[in-house]
Amino acid sequence: MSVSTAVKPRTESAAISGAAGLATRRFYDAASASWMVKVFPGEYYVTNKADEMLVTVLGSCVSACIRDPRTGYGGMNHFMLPHSKAGHWAGDLQSTRFGNFAMEKLINELLKVGCSRSALEIKVFGGGNVTDSQNAIGTENSEFILRYLEAEGLRCAAQDLGGPLPRRIHYYATTGKVVRRLLGTGESYAVAREEKEYVSRLSSRPMAGEIQLFND
Question: Could you tell me if 204 and 191 are in contact, meaning their C-beta atoms sit under 8 angstroms apart?
């Protein structure tokens, strides 16, 4: 059974899970004749279905789109912060809201279905400084993902990082095709507001239950 068959069609939702987990928002898009799987912060998704398209919206967050061209499997993650406060590769309940674990989780899931680490095609997106925070989380996330790939000996096939605007990413995992659309200033304010609230919640306590994010 392919990984993607574990996800059943559901009504589209803007809620995200509070712990590391598989993306579950999946709906049919007649315009593209494909199933759209929405990947929110703290989530990942792996598939070998040609009729599935992975979709996410990124402000200061970063997503890695990774596939093995030989197996036809590919996936996407979406992380909010570079690493846990504990500084460990799998700290803070091993949540994929952190880049260090998000990368390990996605890569390991791909290896489990037969992908080869040496054959992985990796494309990374996001890391825009869309919030008014002086911490420049987007820059931190962008720098982290590039350092991570270099440290792990993984080649980055393509990148679109930084800048002041959020992005919408459509990823076709079986072919490696990515459609990137920069969002306008009006949308940027909404994304920035949600991310600021999200960071505030993360800094105060571990996430639990569901929250609203990115009403796109």
Answer: no
Q: 168: closest CA among 63, 57, 53, 41?
A: 57
Give the phi and the psi of residue 58 in degrees, each rounded to 5. Answer: -125, 125
Amino acid letter, residue 172: Y
pTM of the model: 0.79
Domain ranges of the chain: 30-180+191-205
What six digits make up the tokens of 189? 């304010």
Alpha carbons 5 and 96: distance in angstroms, whole number: 21
Q: What is the Cα–Cα distance from 111 to 85, expressed in whole angstroms? A: 27
Torsion, CA 5, CA 10, CA 35, CA 127, rounded to 10: -100
pLDDT per residue over 70-110, tens digit each? 999 999 999 988 876 555 444 444 577 789 999 999 999 99
| CATH number belonging to domain 30-180+191-205 | 3.30.1330.200
